[in-house]
Amino acid sequence: MSDRPEEQLRALAGAYRPSVNVAQAPHPLLVLPFLAAGWVSLVLAGLLSVRFAPLLAQRSFSALPVLGLVHLMTLGFLTTTILGTLQQWIPVVFDVPALDPKVSSRQALIWGGGLVIFLLGWFVKDVGMVAAGGGIAALGLLLFTILASARMAKSARPRDTIFWTVSGALFALNLVWALGLGMALSWNGAAIGLLPPEVLALHLATALVAWMGLLVMGVELKLVPMFAMASLQNLRVGGPPTLALAGYLSFWFIPWSKDFSTLAAAFWLAAALWALAQVGWSLR
Predict the structure, then answer these.
(1) What is the helix (H) or strand (E) element at residue 277, kind and residue range?
(2) Which of 31, 144, 171, 206 measures 20 to 30 Å from 249, CA to CA?
(3) d(Cα 113, Cα 11) in Å, to the nearest integer?
């Protein structure tokens, strides 16, 4: 009786076939700068939150330093960390060669240099620096998207839900900065017609749902079953991303009817519950 669990584990290990290729992983030095910059940004955000605590207490959320804090967290910490993770995750999961170190370093320098100028502009209250740095950082994100998408397109893997969720998330990443640029132009009176206030909500929804939400769902589809040594069979893995996307698209119609905000929230709640149920099913 005592040998039965060991026999089951041996059988399970013998039947397991890895769905990733760790041999394609890039050198750690190409990934670590992204992760280190992310943690430095998090520490700086904490320190600067104390420095600008009076503005936060006064609910001065439109003050330039407060906007700088927000972007230090969302771009400096979250997005930079995600970009570094994807540098390793995409080659391993899609079984494609990692980027050439020179190309990867140049892309990182464009993104990092633009981001530093962009963030400094908020804190020194220089709109010109914000615009210049934002433009350079946007170029870095666009370059990252092109390089990542090209590698995914060359993969021999089937175009499954993981492929489409990651592709959709990368597209949304660029939509985030495009909406942000539109707001910046509108604030300075340079846009063709002032953008409605709902654009800010779209900017946030695109960042949280279409960019980070879809990406998390795509990563979850790979990591949870892999670590649990479980199978995705009998799971409709496309359900949660589809519902999340439906909620996001509903959000675009809020300027015409506020009822779409309730519809979007319902779609997102259903997506979250479905995703949690799938995780529980995989771990059963």
Answers:
(1) helix 259-282
(2) 144
(3) 51
Structure tokens at 167: 């592709």
Q: Which long-range contacts (CB under 8 A, 24 or more apart) does 99-103 make?
A: 99/26, 99/30, 99/147, 99/151, 101/26, 101/27, 101/30, 103/147
Tokens representing residue 255 in the block: 């300027």
Question: Six-digit token pair at 166?
Answer: 């990651």
Please name the amino acid found at residue 118: F
Q: Which two tokens stand for residue 127?
A: 């709109």
Please answer whether residues 283 and 228 qualify as being in contact, where contact means their C-beta atoms are separated by less than 8 angstroms: yes
Q: What is the pLDDT of residues 98-152, one digit of tens each?
A: 888 889 889 999 999 999 999 999 999 888 888 889 999 999 999 999 999 999 9
Contact between 250 and 226 under an 8 Å Cβ cutoff? The reply is no
DSSP secondary structure code for residue 20 in this structure:
S
SS3 label, residue 95: coil
pLDDT in tens, 268-284: 999 888 888 877 766 66
Both tokens assigned to 121? 């502009």
Under 8 Å between Cβ of 175 and 203: no
